[in-house]
Amino acid sequence: MLHLKRRPPVLANHTIIGEHLNYNHTTVITAPYGDHWRNLCRLAAIEIFSSARFNAFASTRNDQAKQLLCKLSQNAWGLKSLMSGLRIISQ
């Protein structure tokens, strides 16, 4: 569960860099606490973190997970052959 009610104290103080990098503090992370921040959190909960949006990207997540597993599998086989090659050289 995502809790957006409390913010870490580190994020409470804004810097001049935050103004330039975060569109004048208009992101959820850097916006000053108040009406604007509450509206951003509400929009994030409704539009980004909703179950409908989560389900809409299920196939994308599955494809990405398959690609990750294939890549890890390929790397594991490459590492295995590399290790066996090192054993042959060291003997």
Automatic annotation (TrEMBL):
It is a single-pass membrane protein. InterPro entries: Plant_Cytochrome_P450_Monoox. GO terms for cellular component: membrane. It is found in: Membrane. Keywords: Heme, Iron, Membrane, Metal-binding, Monooxygenase, Oxidoreductase, Transmembrane, Transmembrane helix. One of its GO terms (molecular function) is monooxygenase activity. Belongs to the cytochrome P450 family. This is Uncharacterized protein.
